[in-house]
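Marked as duplicate of an earlier ticket. Keeping the data here for the record.
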Amino acid sequence: MSISKIGNISGYGQIASGKRINRAADDAAGLAIANKLKVNAQGTKVATQNTQAGIHVTNIADGGYNSIMDRLQSIRELSIKAMNGTNSASDLQAIQGEIDQQLLGIGEVARNTVYNEQKLLDGSMATMEIASNPTGKGSSIKMYSATLEKLGLEGYSVLGGEINLDAIDKAIEKVSSDRSSLGASANGLAARERANQVAYENMTAAQSRIEDLEMGKAAMNLRKEETLQEVKLAMLNKKKEQDRNILGLF
């Protein structure tokens, strides 16, 4: 191996890897900072993924509430229809049959609105913690119950007595309030997601500025060093030749 190649092993390694720092000896302080930035960046990346999953949860829960709201509106309309004095007993029975189907649907939505095997609307979960920060902490989503019992509609009927529209209105109000809370959680998670993405980009950019090699400059410096080594080698060979000539005179 020539002197020039021996002198430029580090330079060749940097160009081959595209990195200015390949080992602690290249820049110990820079390596420590770059590693810390990498750890924080990766933590932030995972936190962003967690936040996105949390947003999916709010979207699924809101979709369930949307279905329940449609059914509540239908029950209210059927109840008003049942209030009309022109209805016969069989008419009321038919209306109650439709209401029962809507109530059954609400119960199914409350039981079956699920994210990753976790039920969202049956009251089994008070809050869902979202690790939206690289520290593992972050946000929480308050979960609610949309069962018929919690909506105050268990056993709701338009038969044999005064029809209670207040119960329907209160159920609609509860669903609207629950959806509003979910929407606020979704907005907060979306803001955290954007902040995490910006932080990740900034940290990876900072890491790149410390670790990455400026290829054009590195190649120029390497060529300059090689040229100097070649000149030194040529001068050394010339001196050796001169020494041999001097010895030959004697």
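See parent ticket for discussion. The two ends are 34 Å apart (CA to CA).
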